[in-house]
Structures are given as C-alpha cells and as structure tokens.
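Notebook entry, structure prediction.
Reason for the run: the old model in the group folder had no record of what sequence produced it. Starting over properly, with the input documented here first.
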Amino acid sequence: MQMKGNLPIIPSNRADDIHNLDILDKADLILFVAGNQFMVMEELLTLFRKKYPDIKHIFYETLPPGLELKQILAGGAVFRDKILPGRPDIYASVNEEAMHKLEEAGLIEKGNYFIYLHNRIVLMVKEGNPLNIHSVLDLARDEVRISQPNPELEDIGVYIVNMYRQAGGEKLVYRIMEEKRAEGTTIFTIVHHRETPLRLRKDTVDVGPVWATEVLTAKRQGLKVEMVEVGEELDQRKNVNYFITALKKAPHPENAKRFLEFIRSKEAQAIYQKYGFIPHFDTI
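New structure, fully documented this time:
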C-alpha cells in the first residue's frame, strides 16, 4: 500500500482540476492533460465518447503537467486525504523534458510520444489596460505587478522566461524573476490559468503572461480582461509544442490507443482550434 507521506500533495482548492473523482474506481480511461486545456475538455470528451460509446467513465486531471509528472513519478498523489492514481493511461505536457523523464524512469518507450498541438503567449491585463502595458519590457517597471507562472511547476513558466530572455536578455530575466519577486511585484502562481484572472479581478496584480487561449476563455466567461499581443518573434508559437504519450502498463491500453488516434483527428484538432489553440494536424 502506497504511503501518503511519500506522495506529492495536490492543493485542496484544486477540485476544479480533478474531474469525475466519483467514478475513479470504475474509470474506462484516465487522462492527465496540461491544465491550460481545461476549457476544451468537456466538448472534446463528449465527441470522443460519441465515437466510442463503450467508453463511459473518464477520469481526468487538468493540473499543471509538472505537478502531474511528480504524481506519476511518485506513484500517486494526495488530494483531500484521498490517494489519486500515479499511472494514467495518457499523459500530456508542454515540455519535452517531461517525456524524457518518463523514458528515464522506464514508464514509456523511448520516443513513444508525439506533438499534437501548439499555443502562444500573450499578456492578460485588466479591461482598458490602465497601466498602458504594451510590451514585454513594460513588465520591468516598478509599479507593474506580475502574476508569474512558476517555471518549476508550470511548463508555460519556462517559455515565459525564454520570452523575457529574448526581449531583454538576462538583465530582464533577473529583474522580473529575482528583483521584482523580492520586492513583491512578481507573484508566483501554482495554477496560473485560474489564479491570474482572479488576481486581476481582485486588483492584486496588473498583468499576467498566459496562453492566448486563456484570455479568450476569460472573456467568454465575462471577465473584464484584455489581451496584449507580444508579437510573433516573442510569443513562442514556434517553440510551444504539446506532447502526448501513453504509459507502459496503462490500466486501459486499448482505450489509450483509441484516444491517441482520436487526438490526431480533424474533428479533435478543429475543437482545439475553436478555443484558440494552433493545431498540429490538418483540420480541413
């Protein structure tokens, strides 16, 4: 029996990212997907179930993939005193290094993963953009409070730091990630796509680097936010690759195979495109 003390803790307020926990013990498919896909999953899985009606119960997580990776490597995680599984059928990340770590741990076959999606980084600001934030360099200003994804837990954080480096070199990286953090004007997130809109609404921050898909979702939800484009040369669209794999000894290998086939389909890719993602496979 797995001891709770050895497992990573999923914050108790992350219930919105633990889906269908009540049917976990009879799940036909277990998915750990990058959290920034949360807005897509209901429509995506509705179509998937329609295609495969025998797959009735799907448990899935939309946590940061870095946290999900820790869960896999530890053999489970603790959420509200309940032990969650450490062996999903499918794991998806926005960082190829996560796939390498699974290879090293012997949890996937070498090279047994593929790219299925892309995204881009923008700046989310309050409606009206009161601080006139128009570029990445504006984030270095003393008065600008930043909701900053933690690169150790959120894959987007790695790409954001690369964006800072491209925009202003190591000086800008140090200013935002070290100096402003010490000053209290760079505030790390654990689940940025939920925390950043909340902080903007509560006026505890002024800006947050996020995926473009998250600004579109926030606006659909009626939040008073705007998108500031950083430009194609900085928004990382050429570097942001979403990777997906099926784990060895997956609990439901045949259904995992079906899901990987489905995620490449025109129909699935079109749903992602509808929500602002950049498809990897043809949608026509």
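Summary: The radius of gyration is 19 Å.
The old model has been moved to the deprecated folder.
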